[in-house]
Amino acid sequence: MVSTDSTMSLEHHAHGFRFNEKVLGGVTSGLEGEDWLRRACPEASHAYWVLGHLAISRRSLLRGLGKDIPQEPWEASFARGSKPVQELSVAPSVLAEDFLSSGQLLQDLLGSLDEKEASSPYVRKLPDGAQTKAEAARFYLWHESYHLGQLGILRRICGKPGLA
């Protein structure tokens, strides 16, 4: 594949997604039991919801890029606009593993897109105005990093040490 602006940015985004997998491991390390359901304030999401939301966000991007992956029953619990539940209906380790396995699929898919595919329209316009597949990857990487920061704060609220 010849590297052009869109394909080079996809390589950059794929690297960012891989890095975020390391961050996820750090910000969730040592969280257990009630830590997953602790909130910064009553209106805020807890770590469990954020983790599930991260997992379904990767699934959403994969689907938007054309990957056919089955819907999991737990996905609706973590969708945008859903309310955080007060029980762990699926183990956090299952959500983290899904995040990682979706990441491998995402990296493979991003690595296979050529310039024409990268510049082609994404399935919908995203909140930042992203309209192409390459721009969608950029938005989802930003979105993921934002939520990883939330997990870092929730980790500290639970009395765990910071990462840096």
Give a description of the structure.
The chain contains five helices and no strands. The chain is mostly helical and 164 residues long. It has one domain (5-157): Four Helix Bundle (Hemerythrin (Met), subunit A).
Examine the secondary-structure arrangement and name the CATH architecture.
Up-down Bundle
Please provide the ordered H/E string of secondary-structure elements: HHHHH
Rg over CA atoms, rounded to whole Å, is 16 Å
Overall 3D geometry? globular
Total helical segments: 5
Low-confidence stretches: none
Distance between the termini: 37 Å
- Sheet of most strands: none
- The CATH class label is Mainly Alpha
Q: Give the % helix.
A: 55-70%
Relevant CATH superfamily: dinb family like domain
List the helices and strands and how they pair.
Layout: H1 5-28, H2 47-64, H3 92-112, H4 115-118, H5 133-157
Gist of the model:
The chain has 164 residues and is mainly α. Helix content is 56%, strand content 0%.
Which tags fit this structure?
single chain; 164 residues; mainly alpha; Four Helix Bundle (Hemerythrin (Met), subunit A)
